[in-house]
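Loading example: each entry is read as two labelled lines plus one structure line.
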Amino acid sequence: MNDLGSIKITDVAVNVGGLQVLHDVNISASKGDLLALLGPNGAGKTTILRTMLGLVKPAKGTVKVAGASPGKGWRHIGYVPQRHEFAWDFPISVAGVVMSGRTRHIGWLRRPCKDDHIAVRDALRTAGMAELANRTVGELSGGQRQRVLIARALATRPSVLLLDEPFTGVDMPTQEQLTELFIELSGAGTTLVMTTHDLAQAMATADRVCLVNRTVIADSTPPAAARPGHVDADLRDLWLVASTENRRRRCRLNEGDHALPSRLLVRPHQSPAEFSA
Amino acid sequence: MLSPLDFLSDLTNPLLSFLPKALLVALVCSVVAGVIGSHVVLRGMAFIGDAVAHSVFPGLAVAFLMQRSLLLGGSIAGLTTAILVAVVSQNRRLKEDSVIGILFVGAFALGIVIISRAPGYSGSLQQFLFGSITGITDDDIVMVCVAGALVLALEWAVHKELVTVGLDRETARASDLPVFALDLLLYVLVTMTVVISVQVIGNVLVLALLVTPAATARLLTDRLGQMMVLAPVIGGFSALVGLYLSWSIDLPAGGTIVLVATAVFLACWLVAPRGLLALRLDCTAPHHRHARVADDTHRAHLEVGLHVTDPQ
């Protein structure tokens, strides 16, 4: 059963519309990990999440999430998309949206039973939305909307929770509440993977950071996890390089150009020789 | 002009037996269209609804020529067009609305060419395009009621799945829901609704039955369940009043029903909670909903330990 919280992505390459957007991606996580996929816009972070969900088929490599192949593990995977994916003008209550997360679990031709209502109530409570359960979703603020989407994902009691840019466009108090919530969830044994382009936020929240730009450039256990506020200088350097490269519209970071600093806490996925060659 | 009481007596007059039949068909269609139209309005697929409505036409024409079931012919044609739209719009160079525009007008043109081969062509064309309250047979009534009940039953069966997909397609797909199949099913339901409504309302005007009552209901409520009750009620009211006006001042039934529905929409748009008048009032007095949002923000700040002082 411990397998349910695990993620193992091995040598994955993904093509979208004939273009290779990801190559040689290796990511693994185990039960209770809080992993951030950090990278600039267009680095392929969302594509990694979509690959985990089985929405994108990898051109090569293997993907196992919650102990199952993509598309098979849906029962144990929760997904929190970016907020603009959701139809906020729909005439529905917060509780109704959270219940919609259980649609597939309830099953065809069935109505929600007692257990479904309990799951929805628990999810609303965990996400801090219990008081707004009967509010129409269109009336919510940005931070509240984010929490509704999280509650919807939690309503299926997932072993793995995938979040796409959960911090984008929410204010500081909400960011802090979300960070607390994520740490609480991972402490309770849920495996969390979130994408972000905010280095400081990733360092403050996650206990592991994967730097992504078309592939996983580096995978680190930052000391920042123990000392919030402190930013790993070397990871920051790599991050700046990745962002700059991206701005130059080069398809991938040319690892050869940048030898890794010696005191790096980063654990490269490729052999170190490849980085410093 | 007839009084409503005269209308009632005409409805029960055995010599005018087509009148109650037309009313029954119009009411059944309004109820079905109100429920299905709620999905159409909320998904912003009015244009697709229009496309399906028009593309039903060649199927009706063929069925009419071959003396076969209009429902079957129309459904096949509507569904074929819907699938073609879904397939052709996979081509990334063309946007979906262009594909819809090309295919549905093409299908409609095909229908006109086909029906021109029929004897008494202009009469039947007019009847298809704008509807007619005469000539509804008992078989038609059975067909409309059975098909209407089937549409409602199917909607009821997959209601929560349709809502889940309508809310967020990506997450629905991630949770193993067959999004494409559900889309197709919704197209089928729209097609069937259109086909049963064609006889009274007409092919060109049937979109109004799908969209107008549902949009009116949306103005009045923030809950889908209420919307799906209000839309059929508004549609049924429009059908009743429209048919009465049509009969008493000798106007075309389809057009009159749609005009009544449009008038109801405009009235609600003016006086609804979020209608024009409410918005105008909003400018002068703070609306209670805004106050509630402010309350939440206040509470959120308190939760994180920030002190919020009221400006005094």
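The interface with chain B takes residues 17, 53-55, 71, 74, 77, 79, 81, 85-87, 89-93, 96-97, 100-101, 103-104, 106, 108-109, 128, 132, 136, 138-139, 141, 143-144, 152, 156, 173-174, 176-177 of chain A (CB under 8 Å).
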